Structures are given as structure tokens and as C-alpha cells.
């Protein structure tokens, strides 16, 4: 971080914590959590000795904290994590309820999946206030309070009477007004968000959608300056795409041990071509559309039977929600059908794994794969797309045009996941692409990933944020 920014302490606030503590064989173990937000921000916090405030949801989380619910992570030389305790009722209303059954589907424009229960909203407000109170307890002069994501939209509003310098980064899409307006509490949500001076989204179109929503509730909006004037305050709204820790990941991909692991993966599968996909279990990820395209691919290009293996990893998410269980069942049924139809004694077209693994274990898979497959029907960014290209030397990425990352990765083959026929053809195109083209594409992508990495994102975000106070 630049010297001038070092004067300010960073207070990062998110729903999800970067590390949780669990019991394992009667001992307490620390576990790093999987997910885009924490993967992106933890390295940054390790560099700056800041404070991270988040919900402590590990079963042993409160066994290791001090009286102020704080613990140093990842070790005693790390940064401070302050944990907030939520009751079972708060978890159900705020997290499973409003965050996951209202904000998530609406921001991803899955209106029919939303569940607008008044008690969810009441709980969301209460827990957002709780987060704000915890921030207030910690606040020091010149702190920069950087709030993250859709769980905490109201926090800036609860802090508006204080001197806190706040900003909010939104990791998921921002929808068109036609979708957002369906939320009965749309006005209060926007008012909360407009209480901050600086708001960030991944893409231009999310910024535009947000500005338009602000206009619809009566704010004065300057679309070209990307500024919103509302109830006496000004909010600047920008697109700042989250980058990855390129140096680390690319560096690992050059490491002997990693190359050995990736070679072993390829050898173990004993296949000419390997295709890899990894997603959290979610209806936005287009997993069923992808499987449909794989089915069609084997039908249309039978010469690839016995020559290509699709590896699909799925990380569990929202395991308590019935709909996610049904989705898992349906995915597993499709995998079973495709394998049942095509597999032979020595060959199985799809290898399917359910369970999350640490990021470092994913990298050799990215490395071993000739093709990376991302078919989200909508996605804020999708870091896997960036990570895949960061560790490759000649692999091809098939990327949904509906993922935020598609706006920044011209080297990928862009696909419309709803178009099964075209998706099957794109898999073929990717597998057939000459090596020279593949290498060129990877190099172009890597130059951009290196330039716009996680450090660029952090510095650029904070610079623009501080500009708001000049
Ligand atoms: C949101 C938005 C946006 C590690 N193990 C697994 C796994 N990881 C790491 C990956 C990657 C991250 O988790 C997942 O990245 P996403 O971009 O898909 O992030 P989300 O958690 O869905 O969250 C998204 C992101 O925030 C950042 O702003 O890009 O659009 O929805 O770093 O290496 N990932 C999976 N399985 C594992 O076992 N799927």
C-alpha cells in the first residue's frame, strides 16, 4: 500500500470471516475459509496490520478469542479478527433469510426464487445495526471502514451520524430496477447504501443499474460523473474489478512441486484432454446447463469419446436450504445419466467430486486442464476464471458472457450458457485450437491479470475513496 495510505488503519467488515476455528480430534484447529471475498482480501490484510470484523460461525470460534472477541489470524504475527456472535434466530432471519433468500436472488435477477418475509427484513436490520455497533466500539480517528457485500447494505446508514469514513464494495451483480423494485424495502436499502461516500461494483453495467435505481427513488444522479446526491450527501459510484494475487499464483505454477502434482493429475486420469470446472453449489453457476452441453458434445463429436474427461468439483454451500439439496440431487442424476450412457471399462466421461478443497489444491487441477469451463448464468466477477488463466501456459478458458470477468478477459472464448448447441461447439473449438493461438491468448490474459491484480484493486479503490474527501 502507498505510504500516504498507511496513515489510515483499515477496518474491514464482512459477513463471512476469513478463518474459523473448529474441533478436530478434541483439539481446536484453525481453518481458512473458501470463497472469493476472503481469498481476495486475506493476503491484503496480512500485509497491513488492520482489523477485520465478521460473524464468527465456527463451532470453536469463541473458545480462542479474548474478552473483546478478538483473535490474531492466521497467527500471532497476523492481523486482528473481531468476531460477532449471532443467535440461531439471527442466523435464520438475517443470513439464511434476507441475505440468501432476498438479496442474493434479486441481485442475480432470479425474482421467482425470492422470499420476501417481513421477519427476514426485521432480522436483517437488527443484525446490520449490530455490525454497526461493533464498528463504533472499535472506531479510531482516521480509520477507513471498508464494508463488504450484500449482507451489510444498511451498515453505512447506521454509521452515518459518526465521523467514520466508510465505503462499500458490492461483490455480486446489481440488477436492473425492474428486478430490484420487487423488494418491498427497496427504498431503505438504497438509502442505507447512499449513506456512504464511495460505492464500488465489479462492472460498468452494475454501476449503471445502481445509478438508475438511485434515480428511481428520487435521488439526483449525474450519470457521467457517476455521482448521486441524496438527502444532502454525495456518493461516488465506480466499477473497480477485483483482481487476484497474480504473483503468488503464477509463481506457484512455476514451482517444481506444483508442476509435479499437475503432471500426476494428468497421468492419473490417463486422458488425452482434461476439462476442469469448479463451482460452489448454486443456481447461478449454470452447472446443469454445462452438463447438458457436455451430453450434447459427446453426441455431436463422438470422436472425442474416450479422449476427454470432464472433472467437475462442487463446493457445498447453503447446505441447510432444501432447494440446494434438490439442485445437488439433480446434478448428480445428470452426471450418472451421462456416465451411464457413455462410460466404458477404461473410461468415464465425467469425474464428479462434492466437497471443498483449499485453493492451493485447486491450482494443480487448473494447471493440468486443457480447458477451463465457466458457465455461470450470472456472476459478479468469478475469480476462478482469472485464477485458471494465471496458472496456465496454453489452456483455453470457456467463459460465460454473463460473468463479470467476461468484461475483462478478451482472451477467453465467450459462451452463452443457455445455448446448449453453441456451448457444445465451443468445447470442441477450445479442444481443437492450435497451440500457438492458445499460448498467445494466455499471454495476453496474464499481462492484464498481472497489471490489474489484487494490489492494484486495493490501492485504486482506496485512492478513489480518499479522493471523495478532497
Ligand atoms: C462472490 C461473487 C465474485 C477455494 N477452494 C474452492 C474454491 N476456492 C476459491 C477459488 C476462488 C474462490 O474460492 C471462489 O471465487 P468466486 O469468484 O466464485 O467467489 P464467490 O465466493 O462465489 O463470491 C463472485 C466474488 O465474490 C469476489 O468478488 O467473483 O462473483 O459471487 O478464489 O480459488 N472455490 C470453489 N470450490 C473450492 O473448493 N468453488
TrEMBL record:
Domain of life of the source: Bacteria
A Gene Ontology biological process term: trehalose biosynthetic process
GO molecular function list: alpha,alpha-trehalose-phosphate synthase (UDP-forming) activity; trehalose-phosphatase activity
An example Gene Ontology CC term for this record: cytosol
Gene3D superfamilies, A to Z: Glycogen Phosphorylase B
SUPFAM superfamilies: UDP-Glycosyltransferase/glycogen phosphorylase
Matching Pfam families: Glyco_transf_20
Family as reported in the entry's similarity comment: Belongs to the glycosyltransferase 20 family.
Protein name (Swiss-Prot/TrEMBL): Trehalose 6-phosphate synthase
Phylogenetic classification of the source organism: Bacteria, Bacillati, Bacillota, Clostridia, Halanaerobiales
